[in-house]
Design brief:
alpha+beta, 3 helices
């Protein structure tokens, strides 16, 4: 199972990133049979440990994929497919 982490303190853009990530996880499951869960990380220490200093950010299996923006659902589905 893949883990999509949405990193941020809970701001509006962080919530949007979480919504997009949930939709992408559902789409990846339907299209490719990829199981993924979305985890919201709000602890700034953990966020900084991943090298992220601008939120929102999205990581897949601990690898940061987007920083300082809300990625598209298509982007996240592609990351899950890899």
């Amino acid at each position: 199972m893949k883990v999509v982490q949405v990193l941020g303190p809970g701001c509006a853009k962080c919530k949007e990133a979480a919504r997009v990530a949930e939709a992408a996880a559902d789409e990846a499951a339907a299209k490719f049979g990829v199981e993924a869960r979305v985890e919201k990380v709000t602890d700034m220490q953990k966020i900084m440990e991943l090298g992220v200093f601008s939120t929102p950010a999205v990581a897949v299996d601990g690898q940061v994929k987007a920083v300082g923006r809300v990625p598209s659902q298509k982007d996240i589905v592609g990351w899950l497919e890899d």
